């Protein structure tokens, strides 16, 4: 094994679209090649290298398996710095939707109604599915990593909001027990 990007390591084309069952199969094959049992009688240096490869393989699998992480990685490979800490610019329409979603979450928390969380949860999951399709098209069809990076930042917001909804739902369930 040599130094490769995660797609090369798993022998995949560098595209957003990915066969998840094939990813799983290749991960198991690669992980098996560097499994500690295979290095029981190896030198300390060989064991250390195998552990490093196992770590790299597992990280590559984690990134490629998760669509948002895969999209981020593809943008980075294309030279697009997502600037997640400093670049908060987003499309005006998305910002308006973002504010509406935040207000809906605040209202759901205040009302303490599980139905409000369920409706918002569904809406955000649909928005994430739309965003995933949009990012896939930007990366795989239009080869526009810069535009994809902007959409990935929006997707990251949606992902964070979905997590906040899940936490709020659990907090409400805990209070109602």
What does the model show?
This protein is mostly helical and about 180 residues long. It folds into 2 domains: about 5-65, Helix Hairpins (Orthogonal Bundle); about 90-175, Monooxygenase. About 75% of the residues lie in helices and about 0% in strands. The protein contains 7 helices and no strands. It has helices at about 5-10, 20-35, 45-65, 65-75, 90-110, 115-140, 145-175. The radius of gyration is 20 Å and the shape is globular. The termini are far apart.
List keywords for this structure.
single chain, 177 residues, mainly alpha, Helix Hairpins, Monooxygenase, 2 domains
Summarize this structure briefly.
This protein has 177 residues and is mostly helical. Helices cover 73% and strands 0% of the residues. It has helices at residues 6-9, 20-33, 44-65, 67-77, 92-111, 114-141, 145-175.
Kindly estimate the percentage of residues that lie in beta strands according to DSSP: under 5%
Largest sheet: none
Order of helix and strand elements from N to C terminus: HHHHHHH
Q: What percentage of residues falls in helices of 4 or more residues?
A: over 70%
Topology:
Blueprint: H1 6-9, H2 20-33, H3 44-65, H4 67-77, H5 92-111, H6 114-141, H7 145-175
Helix pairs in contact: 2-3, 3-4, 4-6, 4-7, 5-6, 5-7, 6-7
């Amino acid at each position: 094994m040599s130094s490769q990007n995660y797609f090369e390591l798993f022998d995949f084309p560098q595209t957003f679209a990915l066969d998840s069952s094939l990813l799983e199969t290749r991960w198991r094959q690669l992980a098996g090649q560097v499994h500690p049992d295979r290095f029981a009688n190896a030198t300390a240096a060989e064991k250390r290298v195998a552990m490093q490869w196992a770590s790299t393989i597992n990280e590559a699998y984690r990134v490629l398996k998760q669509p948002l992480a895969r999209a981020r990685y593809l943008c980075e490979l294309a030279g697009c710095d997502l600037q997640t800490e400093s670049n908060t610019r987003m499309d005006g329409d998305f910002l308006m939707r973002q504010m509406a979603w935040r207000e809906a979450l605040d209202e759901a928390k205040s009302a303490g109604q599980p139905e409000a969380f369920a409706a918002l949860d569904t809406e955000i999951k649909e928005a994430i599915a739309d965003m995933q399709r949009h990012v896939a098209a930007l990366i795989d069809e239009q080869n526009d990593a810069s535009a994809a990076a902007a959409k990935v930042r929006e997707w990251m917001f949606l992902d964070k909001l979905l997590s906040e909804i899940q936490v709020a739902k659990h907090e409400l369930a805990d209070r109602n027990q």
